[in-house]
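As a warm-up, study this chain.
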Amino acid sequence: MHFLTVPGYTGSGPDHWQTHLENTYEGFSRVVQDDWASVERDRWVATLDETVRGIDGEVFLIGHSCGSVTVAQWAATRWDSRVVGALLVAPADVEAADTLPAIKGQAPLPAVALPLKTHLVVSDNDPFLSLERGLALAETWGSSVEVIPGGGHLATRDGYGEWSHVARLIGQLSGNTLETTDGRVRFAQ
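Now compare it with the structure written out below.
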């Protein structure tokens, strides 16, 4: 199985948990957008679609923020059955009245159940997604949901660099054992 990270607005820097996953475990790569500072729904979804279709075999998606939104939008419109599941961490509420102007171009959020198994991880104090909105998205999308108390946006500045919990979740949700790049087995299903 291939694990594909889908970063959000501005990308995921060197200390971000997505980058740590890519650098620590076998079988991980990243969707690379042409312009991380310009979030545009159709272009970002097309880039994800092109990346997924270029991978052989089963794929598991791991989104953060606007990357989680991209995954949901892609799944609602272009889903490929080789994508067996997705972890959506802190999806940004791109429809909120007070959202960042730079990410408003990603609206609207899907208003349908997604055709694959998804798990949302949200926090109770995310400045880009209220807990109520996160729970409503999980219900609409048919996702299981986990709330991290005091987690903020679950990003580097919130203390989420190396994050073993997310690696364990990926192993559990994908039904696969994650192996480190040096061959050690970690986080068996």
